[in-house]
Structure formats: structure tokens, C-alpha cells
Amino acid sequence: xxxxxxxxxxxxxxxxxxxxxxxxxxxxxxxxxxxxxxxxxxxxxxxxxxxxxxxxxxxxxxxxxxxxxxxxxxxxxxxxxxxxxxxxxxxxxxxxxxxxxxxxxxxxxxxxxxxxxxxxxxxxxxxxxxxxxxxxxxxxxxxxxxxxxxxxxxxxxxxxxxxxxxxxxxxxxxxxxxxxxxxxxxxxxxxxxxxxxxxxxxxxxxxxxxxxxxxxxxxxxxxxxxxxxxxxxxxxxxxxxxxxxxxxxxxxxxxxxxxxxxxxxxxxxxxxxxxxxxxxxxxxxxxxxxxxxxxxxxxxxxxxxxxxxxxxxxxxxxxxxxxxxxxxxxxxxxxxxxxxxxxxxxxxxxxxxxxxxxxxxxxxxxxxxxxxxxxxxxxxxxxxxxxxxxxxxxxxxxxxxxxxxxxxxxxxxxxxxxxxxxxxxxxxxxxxxxxxxxxxxxxxxxxxxxxxxxxxxxxxxxxxxxxxxxxxxxxxxxxxxxxxxxx
Length: 487
What we know:
Structural class: mainly alpha
Distance between the termini: 23 Å
Order of helices and strands: HHHHHHHHHHHHHHHHHHHHHHHH
Number of strands: 0
Radius of gyration: 23 Å
Number of helices: 24
Helix content: over 70%
Shape: globular
Oligomer: single chain
CATH topology of the largest domain: Growth Hormone, Chain: A
Number of domains: 2
CATH architecture of the largest domain: Up-down Bundle
């Protein structure tokens, strides 16, 4: 039975929301008549350009996360909000993201990766407008929920799309662009928040999605999703565009066809089947990594970084210090993007978690010792500086591996026939833990700063063990090879 015949039962299950396969095929036919290889190369759309376009989604993600930090004083003053009301506003993005995460996998499976990003962009735009024109807390809350919903879809769809279009030798670096873009979005929110009023900052938050929407019309749909849906001609045309019209894609085409043909064509599987190692093992790894990413406490530290800096060393220019921390994250994530295809995923995760464990231990000890040291002593000041160094070390360690790599591995290891459901569950787990950490971090810091960082240190130490024992290396392997290894 042919691949086309095998796929008839799923052909009608989903249609590309943004269908552009015809002009890809036209471009392929035209390029075959060109005489020079240079003209052929110029007629193709590179995978890097596709990644740069969809990276606008994670920039939106980061801008949403960073928006609440520089705007707290101004919003609470202008709209006469209490601290608890503003805390609720800040945390509602996590609630919206959990709702978006629940639906993200099914949306991406039914209408495609590009259509899913289009759906995510619309509530983001509406949400920013609601915040910009808010006259009371109700519009703030509605806008934050809508933003969170869009971000929840983006956080699943972008890493999956990048993993499915990238060649195996570039998949790590391109996949890490997702987290790099998040850190850039956070930094942009911090920096612009120093200079513009909060309503204008909300309007600026619309820009990434306004550029993303037209950009989606100029990139191909994921070839693996098209193959799963039985759209053979579009699948091959999309892959040819991504690899270049002068590239022989026959081997990769056959691998993807075999992978799709060997998996169940049903959109859902029975829960009893999850007992099979090929399903539960990658699902456990994906959920585990994404939950440990948040339980490390990074969002709690970043969200309350100004409070931590002031408590540790009496830094009054907390917004400037927060911007500096955001810039360090961007640089460290950029280094991770460069290293991930050279050193591998496991090694970077182990190094990252180890650096975080050591840094958090330093911070915890410094805060404990400050409790037994006189405020006016030189040792007290030294301990404050050590605390700041430890917090910066934690942020660097997180950015080197635990920030970008869990999303990358999740997109690589989940089997194609459960990717929608499993990806939604893993993303939901990540956002739920993000909400738990951001809601409890301030309470824990009030209870004991040293105790808070000790809890985060224990989680980071457990992450080292988790990665060492269970997480496989996916560097240099095709998605089909990775998924076959779990059988």
C-alpha cells in the first residue's frame, strides 16, 4: 500500500489554515529551468529565514513576561490598584497560558503550525489594546488573560515548528533561538519600560505579532505535519523549499514517509497504550524537564529580582539592575545557541543545572550568614555582593541549558501520533509550575530568603540527577531516529 493510500483516513482531519503549497511548487518548477546554481539558491527560502519569522512569537512571549516588572509603580498609581490587585494582574498571564497550553496541541494538529501561530497572534493583539486603554482593573485582567492564552499556544507551537523544519545538524541551534527570542523580548520590555509610559509600552507590545501575521504567509508549513495529514505533494514541496531547490531530499522524504506510515493514523490513542515505553518514556522526560525548568525558581527570582537585589545589597536602582540581568540572560542564551549542536543537549543540561545548584547554594549560605551579621559590618556588605553574584550565576546557568533545551527536547522526542496531546500536557505542566512559583516566591522570600534559595537549590540538584539518568542525547539524530529509539 502506498504512502498516499495509507494517509487517506487522515486527509480530511486537518487542513492548513494558511495554504501556500501551490506557489512553492511553482517556484520549484521555475527553479529547475534556471541555468545557474546561484539563481537556484536565491529562489529558495532558507530555514533560517523561517525561524527568524516565527521567532517573533517568543519575542512576544518574553515581552509579555517582562512587561509587569517596569510598570508596577506607574500602573498601581494611575489606576489606584493595591499590591494584591497588581500581583493578580501579573499572574493572570500564567492562568491564560495554562488555558492556551491545553488547546495548543490540538489546534496545531488540526490547522497546522502556521495556523496555530496566527490564532495565537490575535488574542495577543486584543490583549495589549485592552491594557493600553484600561481605565480600571477589569480591562487589565482581561488583557492579561488574552495575552497569556496566546503565549500558551506560542510556547508549544514555535519549538515544534522549528524542530520539524530544521535539518538535523542545525536543529539544536535553531531550536535554541526560541528561548533566545524570549530573553530578547524580556530585555526589550525592561529597557523600553525605563523610557516610555506604561500605556505606550502596551501598544509597542503589539508590534511582534503585527509583523508575525504577514510573515506567516511567506514561510512553508511544517513538512512533517503535511506528511501526517497525507498531503504528499505539499509535503515534498515544503521540504524542497526548506532545503533549497538544488538539494536532493529523496532520503529525508523516504524517512519521513516510513515514520508516518509506521505510526497510528488516529488522532488519539487509548490511555492503556500509554503504558508502552515508546509513549510513557518520552512523555515523562518532556513533562519532567519542563516542570523542573520552572521549579528551579527562575521566574520567582526574575519576577522579584528588584526586591532580591535590594535585600541582598541595598541596590536602589533596581530597574537598571534588572535590565543588566536581562542582558546577561540574552548573552548566555546566545552562547547556548552556539554550543548546543557542538556539545550536545545532555552535557549542556548537566552543566547548566550544576552551575545553578552551586550558585543557589552560595546565595542561600550568604543570606543565612547575613542573619547572624551586623548590618554595619564589612562582612555584611561582602555577603550582599556574594548574593548578587550567586543570583547572576543562577541566571547564567539557567540560560546555558535549562532555559532553552527542555523546549527543544520536548519538540524532538514526542512521537508524532501523540505530539498534540502530550505536548499540550507538557506545556500545561510548565505553565502551572510557573504560576505556582511566581505566586509563592514572594511569600517564601518573606518567610526566609535563605530557605527559599535552599529549596530552589535542591530542585536544581535533582535536575542534574534526572538528566543524567533519563534524558537521552538527541544531537545529530533525525526526529524519526529519535522516536524509533524509544520503541
